[in-house]
Design a protein that fits this description.
The chain is mainly α. It contains seven helices and no strands. Helices cover about 75% and strands about 0% of the residues.
């Protein structure tokens, strides 16, 4: 539905990370481990508490989610629809961070979100061997 309102470019830098199955597997491993760990440590572990102490939890969640989403713009070809989805993921991770007072919990949510996407891509493309199916579909 968001794609109809905010169209996605036909070709994004992120799609080229799936050009070869080996690269796709490496990306999947990074997407569920190292990337969410570093992003959560920075955005929810460092930035959120600084902003929340100064302006409150709601601003902390919002102002940690915004640069988190903007960080991903280039890899998705500056598609605002995807950036909006990533912003919402950042807000959810921020709310989890606030509610649990744990960066570990927001890391698990973030890794789980990325993991679900990678599992869908893995299954849909038969082990990252038929990425043209995913590109044609979306």
């Amino acid at each position: 539905m968001l794609q109809n309102l905010l169209p996605m470019p036909k070709d994004t830098p992120f799609e080229h990370l799936f050009d070869r199955p080996r690269d796709a597997y490496l990306l999947a491993i990074m997407a569920v481990s190292f990337a969410p760990l570093l992003e959560e440590l920075f955005f929810r572990g460092f930035l959120y508490p600084v902003v929340a102490r100064r302006w409150g939890a709601a601003w902390g969640v919002f102002l940690a989610a915004l640069p988190f989403a903007l960080l991903h713009m280039q890899q998705y070809g500056y598609a605002w629809g995807i950036v909006l989805v990533i912003f919402i993921v950042g807000v959810v991770c921020g709310i989890v961070r606030y509610a649990t007072r744990s960066v570990g919990a927001s890391f698990l949510v973030h890794a789980g979100y990325n993991g679900i996407q990678m599992i869908f891509a893995l299954v849909y493309t038969h082990g990252f061997r038929h990425m043209e199916k995913a590109v044609a579909r979306f």
